[in-house]
């Protein structure tokens, strides 16, 4: 990989559907990569899997892909929620998981180019989508990360 790759991230909470879809379209996102473990919850509102896939295609001609290999395991997630959200522990466990899964070898760079990693957190600071983006940047080095 020699050319620079743009990788976006977005969380859907605290955004209206209009803000969410306008942001993706205006950024020129080609594909949304859903990194959530559970993407069919009623709490997901307009980002429930089947609805999201439809809206993305209709509103922005944006492809939708769900990649469970970029999601935390239920154990890691539950442990984080039960331990009052100890971020350092979660981050370490999640980065080890990405390393064990060797996501940098399993995901073709073409899939990442112009894509947007999606999860629920409104800000990237305490969110696994940022960790995925930074992990891939560390492995491939030519990624520009934009948090939408």
From TrEMBL:
Domain of life where this protein originates: Bacteria
InterPro entries reported in the protein's UniProt record: DUF488 (IPR007438)
Pfam families: DUF488
Protein name in UniProt: DUF488 domain-containing protein
Organism from which the protein derives: Allocoleopsis franciscana PCC 7113
Taxonomic lineage of the native organism: Bacteria, Bacillati, Cyanobacteriota, Cyanophyceae, Coleofasciculales
